[in-house]
Write a structure and sequence with these properties.
Helix content: 25-40%
Number of domains: 1
Number of strands: 6
Number of helices: 9
Strand content: 5-15%
CATH class: Alpha Beta
CATH superfamily: HUPs
């Protein structure tokens, strides 16, 4: 089994790492790929370059052999549709269970994604929630969960895709938008960011009015 964790990672923070650790542990997987997007469809454009976001991700991956970075979406000139990426990953791993890890906020918008139903047939969906978040009750997602939801993680190892699991565990309430704003106001909370990423942000003067553009 491999886990794909998509997002802007702008910047990667301890909340992301907690999600990744919990997914690896609870799903008994050996590898998780952070897949940064270039042009997010449902979010604002990233605040720094793709090169900076990848560099920060690689710093955290260097500290955990189970982590790696998948840069496929950064080479596209079209929006970062998860369905297209999952088609490519499925072709590369035709016999391997694949799990797409997302937050509850993303899950609640899943029915608006490009070819979302095809996406959910290519892989399993694992959802991790922040404090106070709960699943959306809109009809398309209700129908999806009625046939896809499972609490038996062994099933995800026995099938290639099509199931949805909600992960439980300790949560770190961190958000990239809050981190960016606090850095801009020179009020950063270093507890939300890995030390190596803090050093990188400071060295390259990121997320400030005089941020590096390269």
């Amino acid at each position: 089994m491999i886990i794909i964790f998509g997002g802007t990672f702008d910047p990667v923070h301890c909340g992301h790492l907690n999600m990744a650790h919990q997914a690896l542990l609870q799903l008994a997987a050996d590898k998780l790929y952070f897949m940064p997007c270039a042009v997010p469809v449902h979010k604002a454009a990233p605040g720094v370059t793709a090169a900076h976001r990848v560099a920060m991700l690689k710093l955290v991956c260097n500290e955990n052999r189970h982590f790696a970075v998948d840069e496929r979406e950064l080479t596209r000139t079209t929006p970062s549709y998860s369905h297209l990426s999952m088609e490519e990953i499925r072709q590369a791993y035709p016999n391997e269970p694949i799990v797409f890890l997302i937050g509850m906020d993303s899950f609640n918008q899943l029915h608006t994604w490009f070819k979302w139903q095809a996406l959910t047939s290519l892989c399993h969906i694992a959802v991790f929630a922040r404090p106070g978040e709960s699943p959306s009750l809109v009809e398309p997602l209700q129908s999806y969960l009625a046939q896809a939801k499972t609490e038996n993680t062994d099933v995800l190892h026995q099938t290639l895709g099509g199931h949805c699991v909600f992960l439980k565990g300790p949560v770190i309430d961190a958000a990239s938008s809050k981190i960016r704003n606090s850095i801009k106001q020179n009020q950063r909370d270093n507890s939300a960011i890995p030390d190596a990423v803090i050093h990188y942000i400071t060295t390259h003067n990121l997320y400030t009015d005089n941020a590096s553009l390269t």
